[in-house]
Amino acid sequence: MGVRNQTQVVEFVFLGFSSIPNSHLYLFLPFLAVYSVTVLGNLMIFTLIQLDSSLQSPMYYFLSHLSCLDICLSSVTVPKILINFLYQQQTITYNQCMTQMFFLMTFTVTEAALLAVMAYDRYAAICKPLHYSRLMNTKVCTILAFATWVWGFLDAALHTALSSKLHFCGVNQIHHIFCNIPPLMKIACKGVYINQLATHIATPFVGIAPFLFTILSYLFILCSILKIHSSTGKRKAFSTCASHLTVVIVYFGNGLLNYNHPSAGNSLETDTLVSTMYCIIPPMLNPLIYSLRNKEVKGALKKVLESQRKGYIDHRNSKGEHLQNL
Q: What's this model's pTM, rounded to 2 decimal places?
């Protein structure tokens, strides 16, 4: 393997699937299926929000951003995995690795911040209903959405710049299935301390803070729901945030498992499974959660399908009449 200045490798080898014989034969179709469902499902949610007037609210505005994020997050890792399966080689160039890590961090940090913003939206809707239109007007929603993307971009730019200073002393085998800071620091021989320090400083702001803010928002929401006297009112209030709460549990639960599970003593298969659960499965589940648990989304989908069906029938009837006239 080529080495630059005796310290910097020019290509990395992923070992995440190395313990699975003929992994390209068994895993290509499952990963392709997951990626297809992710892209089509999130694209469906995004399109419905743009087309249906009943979904033009702050909650669905943020959901459209979440759908875009999930498509981007999945596209950062899965296509490269699929290409490696096709060519039967688990490699990535140094520049591709840095690029993949940058966008992976951008989208994961942005999604954590966006979920916190969505929790605040639900708090404002349930706990401050009389002030909701002022608290979550169009300008505020736009600023909050833009801020989450900038927050993710800045964090990723910092960590990628620091990671580019790592030296690997010719070691190029990554015990992972994609590029990320922890596995790169494990094989680095120089420049690790500053990266560890930056990670420890950033984690409370980009990971813990959004999680605690989300938990705090839902504690206030729960208190407000418990004050509602009618059971119907309680169900209606809870139903407005049930889908988001489920997504929060899936995302932050997998995040905590991915970044806090003890690597010592864990097999490579376990680490690979945890990584897959964190970056590949949640983007697929999010549109399923919102489409199955949200009546407004299901209603919008039903209207679109009925409209398409009616259009098809009208087109077929008009074509039949045209043929009869001939």
A: 0.87
